Amino acid sequence: MRVDLRAYWHGIILIGAPGAGKGTQAVLLSKALGVIHISSGDLFRENISGGTPLGKLAKSYIDRGDLVPDDVTIGMVKDRLSQPDCAAGFILDGFPRTVPQADALAEVLESLNKRVTVAPYIRVRDTMLLERLTHRWTCRGCGAVFGAMSLPPRDGCKQDVCDGELYRRPDDNPETQRKRIEVYLKNTAPLIDYYRSKGLLEEISGEHTVEHVHRLMMDAIRKSVGLG
Ligand code: AP5
Ligand code: MG
């Protein structure tokens, strides 16, 4: 008998290098589990397009491929997690990205009597990451991402009712791509051991098709609620 995973509370954090497919998988998981998808990168990009002080500050780091300072990032994500649509659970994509961020998340969740339920780590080799980032198109309207072969950019987004223009993220240029991968290896890869030591890490190969990776993700989530 298939149990409906929507009946469970999920606190999912996606770990993976730039281009591993965190955003792509988060959208599918959000639909399958009925919980909100929070991307720290998208929150920063919304602030940048809105011209907010937070956006102006974040832009200088994002354009260089550096991490936005922890205090700023933690404050932004804490605010988002306190909103009512997170009560049913969440999928965090791009946060935490440092050990202090992971500790801050644990603290916030503890104060809400919640916890991270699983940390899927999407593993993809560097050459493939660079290839994917080089061919990615992003929708200005809904933030959907596309690979080179999935849609001719001139057609616009065409996701659900969206007709947004597709653009290349400014931080997807070759120099910044490499810098982001270096920053990931130095600052974020330690989270793999952090969550492994807590028994929460689920390592998943991200080198299969999007649909196959999604099936592996769902298996990991089933396991995290004791159904695997
Ligand atoms: P963020 O927006 O989080 O970028 P990122 O981590 O670099 O990750 P990406 O969004 O580039 O990749 P992804 O894993 O989501 O891959 P996607 O699904 O798009 O962060 C941007 C910046 O914001 C950071 O550099 C930093 O400055 C700042 N920031 C954000 N969070 C922060 C934090 N917590 N602390 C401090 N600073 C922070 O897929 C990529 C491409 O591959 C797409 O074209 C997609 O179609 C394709 N693809 C996906 N899966 C597959 C597959 N299985 N097969 C073939 N193609 C695939
Ligand atoms: Mg992303």
Description:
This protein has about 230 residues and is an alpha/beta fold. The chain has a domain at about 5-125 and about 190-225: Rossmann fold (3-Layer(aba) Sandwich), CATH 3.40.50. It contains 9 helices and 8 strands. It has helices spanning about 20-35, 40-50, 55-65, 70-80, 100-110, 125-135, 175-190, 190-195, 210-225; strands at about 10-15, 35-40, 90-95, 120-125, 135-140, 145, 165, 200-205. Strands 2-3-1-4-8 form a 5-stranded parallel beta sheet, with helices on both faces. A 3-stranded antiparallel beta sheet has the order 6-5-7, with no helix packed on it. Bound molecules: BIS(adenosine)-5'-pentaphosphate and magnesium ion. BIS(adenosine)-5'-pentaphosphate binds near residues 18, 20, 22, 61 and 94.
Map the helices and strands.
Layout: E1 10-16, H1 22-33, E2 36-39, H2 40-49, H3 53-64, H4 70-81, E3 89-93, H5 99-111, E4 119-123, H6 126-134, E5 137-139, E6 145-146, E7 166-167, H7 174-188, H8 190-197, E8 201-205, H9 210-224
Parallel strand pairs: 1-3, 1-4, 2-3, 4-8
Antiparallel strand pairs: 5-6, 5-7
Helix pairs in contact: 1-9, 2-3, 4-5, 6-7
The structure holds BIS(adenosine)-5'-pentaphosphate (AP5) and magnesium ion.
The site of BIS(adenosine)-5'-pentaphosphate has 33 residues, from α1, α2, α3, β6 and α9.
